[in-house]
Structures are given as structure tokens and as C-alpha cells.
Amino acid sequence: MSSLRIRGIYTTALTERLRGAFDVVQASPPIRRRFDADFPSEEYDATIETTDDRQGVGVVGDPETVASVAETIADGLDAFRWSDPAPRGAVFDAEVTETLGGGAVVDLGDREGYLPFNKIDRRVHAGDRVRVQVHDPVAPWADHRPGLGAALHAFGGVVSLSTGIDRVVADGDDATRTELARTTEMLPTEVPDEWGVKWEYAAEDAEFGAMDDALASAVERTEEIDDALGKEDSDSEENAPERLVAPEATEWVWFGRESRFDLDADRRAVTTTIPGHHRVKAAHESASAAVDFAEDLGNVGTEFPTGAALRQFGPAEGDRVAIRHGKPDGRCFSLGKGEVTACDPDEGRVTVRRKMSGGGLYDALEVPRESGDVAVTKFREGRWWYPTAYRDSDGETKGTYVNVCTPVELFPDSARYVDLHVDVVKFPDGEVRRVDDDELDESVADGEVSAELAEKARNVAGSVEKALR
């Protein structure tokens, strides 16, 4: 079986979900205790890591393993999966489009990347061609770009190889580094010229044979990179942007509210788990300690503690929150920030008021957007839709727009969901119209929205349309 390393707030649930089909390696002490099992310290075929914003996970590694893992963990009704065109380890001939204070924005073709100036040994300017590798892939919904570098890496969980180092390096104290350097000399696998060795933390617990297997795997990836770059045309940089080689794949999975509750059930099969465990932990980093404490006491209840979550972590009346509008293609952007003017934690209800700037028309309502207009949006945790009422500076209605989406989650600084295209609008004269069914159909045809989720969206839109008439 293929091997996986899993890290982050979804680790216990995903270990339970995946361990029957994959070998889990490099497990943390809490995971070893919960499963009462020994997990080997050896190289992984793919690694699963929680994203920085805790909204989902990235799966990186062997392309076949990555695809299989991503398919397995993205089977929730409101889970979304995307394949990254700029996976970790991919090498591009690319073009600099602009320079910022500390680095350059680089066009990779289907994505942009960020190249810090200290990651390349020459000055670059807009229009320059550069050869770069993706070192730090980024989820498509994140608000920053993948991190790039000029040095080449063959990434691994036990050992990595890099053209940016010329010796054996390792994490840990001097004794550990010395021992690993000596061990490297004894391993049967030879390191290619121009590549240096970096032993990762897991190497300290790996056996001799596992270390050599890991090194051999890394060497295979360096050979794939070297072979691809050795076959390049002399004018390949003139064809930028162009992806030259991608020894690994990267896929991203975003979990919606219902999918997080599915993960709770997986975790509950292993250890005490409160309803909404992953929903609360996804809301704020500080929530982890509170959730762990409650579970350790055995105070788990039977329903998600909506009121407690909102009272403890927000948002609260007077706070400012953003409306984080996700799209089925992976993008996520803010519809703006507003003030929370009303909050009922026990009911999971929050009202957000935004002052609008002038210019253009309100989508689907076809009325002018003017300075002084006010948008009042009412969210309810877990609901598949939310309404926004627009009024002018005199309080006269300009219409109501009801967005159909994955179940709303109310986090301390934002309301989050993924838009499901189809919506319902109510005009000032009382006319009700359903819009954008064609966009939902296209999204299903493109494989962005499942047929089951699309049917749910259509049913929700139908109910909202009937209620507004």
C-alpha cells in the first residue's frame, strides 16, 4: 500500500478514514496513543497537511497516490477538490510581471507565483525570463501566491535533496547532525553531483534501510528533474511561461460545514469528540485548546454548541467581519467588510451592515449602485442560503438578493461558504426571479460541482423562490 504522512487539525479523522487503504507513517505521539499502534518512521508517498487557514488540506506527493487520497477525502456533499497547476516541485520557465518590495510576481501560466529576491542570485525586473521551482504551493482560495525559488529541490519527509546546498545538513543538535552525515556516507545510494542532502526530523527515528530507501526515492526525483531540464530546447525560456517538469502532484480539498461534521464522525470512532469539533477548530487557532479541554473532561454533548462557539470566539455585535465568497473553481474573494449590527449566538444568527460605494449596477437587480447605499445581510450558521437587502440613502428598497451556497459558517472575522451559482432576486416592485441556473449547469459540466450538490442547490433555490412570492 502507498504510505501517507498526515498533519494538522484533521489528522485523527483522516487517519481513521484512510488507514485501511494506506499505510500511515511518521505519526505524532497523540496519534500513536489514540490508535494504540506503532507507525513506522519511513518515507511517505504523499503528505496531507492542513492549510494555514484551517479550511481544508493540501495533498502532495506521488501523482497516483495524491489523486486516490484526494478522491477519498473529498467525498462529502459540500467538499471541493482542485488539482494545482503549480504543484510542489514543478519547474517552470516563467516571466516576471512586476516587482514588489521583497520579491517578484512571476507568471507561471495558469497561476502566478512569488519569487523572493533572496531566492535568486541575480536581480530581476518586469519582463525578465526566469527558471523557478515551486517550493511552497498555496491553496487556490488563499490570498497569497505560491512561493518560488531558483534552487531545485527533490522534496521528502525523511530526506530532501537540493542544488542550493553543497553538503549534508540536518535538523537537530550537533551530535545528531554529525551522526546523520556519517550515516549518509555509509548508505549504498549515491547522491548525484550538484545536489546536497538535507535530512528531515523524521530521519532521527528512521532505520538504516528506511533511510536508504528514502534517499533512493529522492534521487529518482532528481534524475527526473535533471533529465527533463537536460532535454530542453536552447530557446525554451523564450517560450515562457512553460512547465518543464512536475515530479509531484498537489491537490487541494476544501471542507464545507457538513463535510467537517462527517470528519467528526470519523474522529469519534477513535476518541471522544464534541459535535462540531472540526467546525470550531477551523474557526480560530485558539479554539483548539478549548475543544481539547472539553473533550478531555468528557463534556461533549450531542449537538453542535453554536451559541458557545459564537460567544467565545465571535463574531459579536460591533465586530467587523468580511464576507468570504468562495467559488466552485477554487477562488475565494471578499465581498467587503461590514459591521455586525445584531447577533443571536444561540440561534446562530448574525446581521451585517455594509456601506456601499457608487458605480455600476447591482448584479441581477439591474439597478444603479450609488454612494450612500446600504446592504444588510442576514446570515444563519448552517443555512444553505442568505439574503442581502439593498437600500438607498433615504431607506428606499433597491431589491433583495438571495445567495444559494454551501452551509454558512460564521467565523470570528468572516462568514464563509462556497457560492453555488443559482440565486433568487426580489425586485422593488415585488417581482421574484431565479437567476444563473445556466452557470450551475456549466459548473456541473466542468466537474466543479457534483450532480448531488447541484440538485441540492436547485431545491434550495426553488424553496426560496416559492417563499418570496
Helix content: 25-40%
CATH class of the domain at 314-468: Mainly Beta
Structural class label: alpha+beta
| Fraction in beta strands | 25-35%
- CATH architecture name of the domain at 314-468: Beta Barrel
Major beta sheet, specifics?
A: 7 strands, mixed, barrel
Distance between the termini: 56 Å
Number of strands: 25
Strand order of the largest sheet: 17-18-19-20-21-22-24
In the CATH hierarchy, what is the superfamily of the domain at 314-468?
A: FomD-like
Number of helices: 11
Mean pLDDT across every amino acid position: 95
Given as residue ranges, the uncertain stretches (5+ residues, pLDDT < 50) are none
Stated plainly, the CATH topology of the domain at 314-468 is called FomD barrel-like fold
Overall shape: globular
Task: Describe the 3D structure.
- Helices cover 27% and strands 31% of the residues.
- The protein is an alpha+beta fold and 469 residues long.
- Among the domains are: 79 residues, no CATH class; 75 residues, no CATH class; 155 residues, FomD-like (FomD barrel-like fold, Beta Barrel), CATH 2.40.380.
- It has a 7-stranded mixed β-barrel. A 6-stranded mixed sheet has the order 2-1-3-4-16-5, covered by helices on one side.
- Helix 1 crosses helix 6.
- The longest helix is centred in the middle third of the chain and has 23 residues.
- The radius of gyration is 25 Å and the shape is globular.
